[in-house]
Specification:
51% helix, alpha/beta, Arc Repressor Mutant, subunit A
Amino acid sequence: MVVASYHIVLADDHVMFRQGLKRILAERSDLEVIGEVGCGLELLKLLEKLVPDLIILDISMPNLRGLEAIHDIKMNHPKVRILVLTMHKDKEYLRLAITGGAEGYLLKEDADSELFSAIDMVRRGKKYISPELSEGLAKDWIKVTRGDQKPSFEPERLTVREREVLKLIAEGKSSKEIGDVLFISARTVEHHRANIMDKLNLKKTADLVKYAIQKGYV
Protein backbone atom coordinates (compact mmCIF):
# COMPACT_ATOMS: atom_id res chain seq x y z
CA MET A 1 0.00 0.00 0.00
CA VAL A 2 1.34 3.42 -0.97
CA VAL A 3 1.40 5.90 1.89
CA ALA A 4 0.41 9.45 0.93
CA SER A 5 3.15 12.01 1.39
CA TYR A 6 2.98 14.26 4.42
CA HIS A 7 3.73 17.74 3.07
CA ILE A 8 6.12 19.92 5.09
CA VAL A 9 7.31 23.52 4.86
CA LEU A 10 10.55 24.57 6.57
CA ALA A 11 10.96 28.07 8.05
CA ASP A 12 14.43 28.91 9.36
CA ASP A 13 16.75 31.77 8.50
CA HIS A 14 19.84 29.53 8.39
CA VAL A 15 20.10 28.07 4.87
CA MET A 16 22.64 25.39 5.80
CA PHE A 17 20.42 24.19 8.65
CA ARG A 18 17.43 23.93 6.31
CA GLN A 19 19.50 21.93 3.84
CA GLY A 20 20.60 19.55 6.57
CA LEU A 21 17.03 19.17 7.78
CA LYS A 22 15.83 18.39 4.26
CA ARG A 23 18.44 15.63 3.95
CA ILE A 24 17.27 14.09 7.21
CA LEU A 25 13.59 14.26 6.19
CA ALA A 26 14.42 12.68 2.83
CA GLU A 27 15.21 9.45 4.71
CA ARG A 28 11.47 8.95 5.08
CA SER A 29 9.55 8.23 1.87
CA ASP A 30 6.28 9.42 3.44
CA LEU A 31 7.63 12.92 4.18
CA GLU A 32 8.00 15.57 1.48
CA VAL A 33 9.37 19.10 1.85
CA ILE A 34 7.31 21.25 -0.52
CA GLY A 35 8.68 24.68 0.43
CA GLU A 36 11.18 26.58 2.54
CA VAL A 37 11.55 30.19 3.68
CA GLY A 38 13.92 32.31 5.74
CA CYS A 39 11.58 34.60 7.65
CA GLY A 40 8.08 34.82 9.07
CA LEU A 41 6.75 37.20 6.43
CA GLU A 42 8.01 34.96 3.62
CA LEU A 43 6.22 32.08 5.32
CA LEU A 44 2.88 33.90 5.40
CA LYS A 45 3.26 34.82 1.72
CA LEU A 46 4.10 31.21 0.83
CA LEU A 47 0.95 30.02 2.58
CA GLU A 48 -1.10 32.14 0.20
CA LYS A 49 0.03 29.78 -2.58
CA LEU A 50 0.26 26.40 -0.90
CA VAL A 51 -0.93 24.86 2.35
CA PRO A 52 1.20 22.06 3.88
CA ASP A 53 0.25 19.49 6.47
CA LEU A 54 3.05 20.60 8.79
CA ILE A 55 5.28 23.64 9.24
CA ILE A 56 8.60 23.21 11.03
CA LEU A 57 9.72 26.67 12.11
CA ASP A 58 12.28 28.43 14.22
CA ILE A 59 11.45 31.13 16.76
CA SER A 60 14.25 33.55 15.87
CA MET A 61 13.68 34.80 12.33
CA PRO A 62 13.98 38.30 10.84
CA ASN A 63 11.03 40.67 10.20
CA LEU A 64 8.42 38.41 11.78
CA ARG A 65 9.39 35.89 14.44
CA GLY A 66 8.13 32.35 14.49
CA LEU A 67 6.04 33.07 17.59
CA GLU A 68 4.08 35.81 15.87
CA ALA A 69 3.81 33.78 12.66
CA ILE A 70 2.19 30.93 14.62
CA HIS A 71 -0.74 33.16 15.53
CA ASP A 72 -1.35 34.27 11.94
CA ILE A 73 -1.01 30.73 10.61
CA LYS A 74 -3.56 29.35 13.05
CA MET A 75 -5.98 32.19 12.32
CA ASN A 76 -5.90 31.57 8.55
CA HIS A 77 -5.02 27.87 8.36
CA PRO A 78 -6.24 26.20 11.57
CA LYS A 79 -5.71 22.66 10.22
CA VAL A 80 -2.01 23.20 9.52
CA ARG A 81 0.10 21.71 12.30
CA ILE A 82 3.17 23.46 13.63
CA LEU A 83 6.36 22.02 15.11
CA VAL A 84 8.69 24.61 16.60
CA LEU A 85 12.34 23.61 16.15
CA THR A 86 14.55 25.93 18.15
CA MET A 87 17.62 26.31 20.34
CA HIS A 88 15.65 28.27 22.98
CA LYS A 89 15.13 26.37 26.24
CA ASP A 90 13.40 29.26 28.00
CA LYS A 91 10.01 28.14 29.32
CA GLU A 92 8.47 31.47 28.32
CA TYR A 93 9.15 30.67 24.66
CA LEU A 94 7.64 27.23 25.16
CA ARG A 95 4.54 28.70 26.78
CA LEU A 96 4.05 31.30 24.05
CA ALA A 97 4.50 28.71 21.30
CA ILE A 98 2.07 26.17 22.75
CA THR A 99 -0.57 28.67 23.84
CA GLY A 100 -0.22 30.35 20.44
CA GLY A 101 -1.26 27.13 18.75
CA ALA A 102 1.89 25.09 18.04
CA GLU A 103 1.49 21.34 18.39
CA GLY A 104 5.13 20.64 19.16
CA TYR A 105 8.28 22.18 20.61
CA LEU A 106 11.55 20.45 19.75
CA LEU A 107 15.02 21.63 20.77
CA LYS A 108 17.56 21.63 17.95
CA GLU A 109 19.99 19.71 20.14
CA ASP A 110 17.43 16.88 20.26
CA ALA A 111 16.65 16.89 16.55
CA ASP A 112 19.03 14.06 15.63
CA SER A 113 17.28 11.59 17.90
CA GLU A 114 13.79 13.07 18.30
CA LEU A 115 12.81 14.68 14.99
CA PHE A 116 10.84 11.79 13.53
CA SER A 117 9.19 11.02 16.88
CA ALA A 118 8.11 14.66 17.16
CA ILE A 119 6.71 14.70 13.61
CA ASP A 120 4.84 11.43 14.10
CA MET A 121 3.26 12.59 17.37
CA VAL A 122 2.16 15.90 15.87
CA ARG A 123 0.90 14.07 12.80
CA ARG A 124 -1.31 11.90 15.03
CA GLY A 125 -2.81 14.99 16.63
CA LYS A 126 -0.81 14.81 19.86
CA LYS A 127 1.38 17.39 21.56
CA TYR A 128 5.16 16.98 21.61
CA ILE A 129 7.67 18.68 23.90
CA SER A 130 11.41 17.89 24.00
CA PRO A 131 12.24 15.46 26.84
CA GLU A 132 14.43 17.93 28.75
CA LEU A 133 11.71 20.59 28.79
CA SER A 134 8.84 18.20 29.53
CA GLU A 135 10.78 16.80 32.50
CA GLY A 136 11.40 20.32 33.79
CA LEU A 137 7.72 21.21 33.40
CA ALA A 138 6.73 18.11 35.36
CA LYS A 139 9.06 19.07 38.20
CA ASP A 140 7.72 22.64 38.22
CA TRP A 141 4.14 21.36 38.28
CA ILE A 142 4.91 19.16 41.30
CA LYS A 143 6.49 22.10 43.15
CA VAL A 144 3.53 24.35 42.34
CA THR A 145 0.97 21.78 43.50
CA ARG A 146 2.92 21.32 46.73
CA GLY A 147 3.02 25.08 47.24
CA ASP A 148 6.83 25.16 47.09
CA GLN A 149 6.86 27.75 44.31
CA LYS A 150 4.56 30.07 42.38
CA PRO A 151 3.67 29.38 38.74
CA SER A 152 6.65 30.39 36.61
CA PHE A 153 4.69 31.84 33.68
CA GLU A 154 3.45 35.39 33.76
CA PRO A 155 0.49 36.38 31.58
CA GLU A 156 1.55 37.98 28.29
CA ARG A 157 0.58 41.64 28.48
CA LEU A 158 1.07 42.49 24.81
CA THR A 159 -0.98 41.34 21.86
CA VAL A 160 0.68 39.50 18.98
CA ARG A 161 0.64 42.66 16.84
CA GLU A 162 2.12 44.72 19.67
CA ARG A 163 4.94 42.19 20.04
CA GLU A 164 5.60 42.42 16.29
CA VAL A 165 5.78 46.22 16.50
CA LEU A 166 7.96 46.11 19.61
CA LYS A 167 10.43 43.74 17.95
CA LEU A 168 10.81 46.04 14.95
CA ILE A 169 11.15 49.13 17.17
CA ALA A 170 13.95 47.38 19.04
CA GLU A 171 15.63 46.63 15.71
CA GLY A 172 15.79 50.37 15.05
CA LYS A 173 13.15 50.64 12.34
CA SER A 174 11.12 53.84 11.91
CA SER A 175 7.32 53.91 12.08
CA LYS A 176 7.14 54.06 8.28
CA GLU A 177 9.52 51.11 7.91
CA ILE A 178 7.54 49.10 10.47
CA GLY A 179 4.33 49.94 8.64
CA ASP A 180 5.83 48.75 5.35
CA VAL A 181 6.90 45.44 6.91
CA LEU A 182 3.56 44.77 8.61
CA PHE A 183 1.36 46.32 5.87
CA ILE A 184 -0.15 48.91 8.20
CA SER A 185 0.04 52.71 8.29
CA ALA A 186 2.70 54.64 10.19
CA ARG A 187 -0.12 56.17 12.24
CA THR A 188 -1.28 52.71 13.29
CA VAL A 189 2.30 51.87 14.28
CA GLU A 190 2.39 54.97 16.49
CA HIS A 191 -0.91 53.89 18.05
CA HIS A 192 0.56 50.48 18.86
CA ARG A 193 3.71 52.12 20.27
CA ALA A 194 1.60 54.26 22.61
CA ASN A 195 -0.40 51.22 23.77
CA ILE A 196 2.80 49.26 24.42
CA MET A 197 4.31 52.06 26.50
CA ASP A 198 1.07 52.44 28.44
CA LYS A 199 0.76 48.70 29.17
CA LEU A 200 4.40 48.39 30.23
CA ASN A 201 4.50 51.77 31.99
CA LEU A 202 7.54 52.85 29.96
CA LYS A 203 8.40 56.38 28.87
CA LYS A 204 11.29 56.15 26.39
CA THR A 205 12.17 54.19 23.28
CA ALA A 206 15.34 53.03 25.03
CA ASP A 207 13.15 51.43 27.70
CA LEU A 208 11.20 49.60 24.99
CA VAL A 209 14.43 48.28 23.49
CA LYS A 210 15.64 47.11 26.89
CA TYR A 211 12.35 45.34 27.57
CA ALA A 212 12.41 43.67 24.13
CA ILE A 213 15.91 42.36 24.77
CA GLN A 214 14.97 41.07 28.23
CA LYS A 215 11.97 39.22 26.79
CA GLY A 216 14.02 37.75 23.95
CA TYR A 217 12.10 39.52 21.18
CA VAL A 218 15.40 40.49 19.51
